[in-house]
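Methods, example record. To illustrate the input and output format used throughout this study, we show the complete record for Prenylated Rab acceptor protein 1. The sequence lines were provided to the predictor; the line carrying structure tokens was produced by it.
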Amino acid sequence: MSAATLASLTLAAPVFDSADYPRQTPFVSAEVWDVGGTMTYPIQFCNSTETALLGEAFEEMSLLAEHARDHILRFGFSSDYYVKYFGNANTAEPAGWFDKIVNGDKTGVLFRCDDPDDNCRLAGWAGHWRGENSSDETVICEYSFTSRWPLAGLCGYGYTVAGGETTAYFASDLIHRVFHTDKLGEGVVGHYADTYDDCLKLAIDSPEEAVRNSASLRYFALDVYAYDIAAPGQGCTGHPPLSSSSSSAAASSSTASSVASSATAASATTAEASTTSSAPSECHTHSDGEVHCV
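The corresponding predicted structure is encoded as:
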């Protein structure tokens, strides 16, 4: 190979700054090659009750992610659930994201309850990623401990994957939160779509984004766990909530069918709407300062 050819290849090669990546710990022996790694999610500044509940939630999150990974590895494109959420995208990427939750190094990641940014006082905030303040830290607010359900209750009490929130269970909520960290989400997993319908559309229109869409990963994990584990062979996919236009049409039809009860119905609807609108959204911040509420 000529010197000119070598020079052109050198110029064309991508340049990586090794300073951006922590150095591997010097090799000691075959028994301790992974010395210095952190396999559990670090928790600090939480009281004993919060620490216990958060520890259990992380165990359940690992179960949820582990099963999602194993479902992909077992069924791949033959899984209707896979095609539904990820289209024709390669199976390695979502399987890898789920595996990273379970087996990736957590050194530098921190979950805390002391609210150094004073956001937990805001109504409906269950927690937040600290973003530019500390991109591998997440604050868990008291609201998380009082509102999140255990994974054992999946499909219970009328919950459906399509109709409910992916953050209803502590396990799936934590999947959302760990992917916000630079360590685990790598700035790649993000919010390309959020609602159930939008995630299904993303799988068709942009499968390459679907496999790194935080909500798609959560919907998939919940759906396959429900079908394979929680309610075997049945699951609880359900249907997404009616659109506002469908709700309006239904309300008009109902009013037309019974004029006599319209005043009562309108009063009840107004009260319900007032209650719904005053219900707090669950919010977190992004590194650019954007507040994302679900």
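Annotations derived from this record:
Residues 48-75 form the longest helix (28 residues).
Confidence is low (pLDDT under 50) at residues 9-16, 244-281, 285-289.
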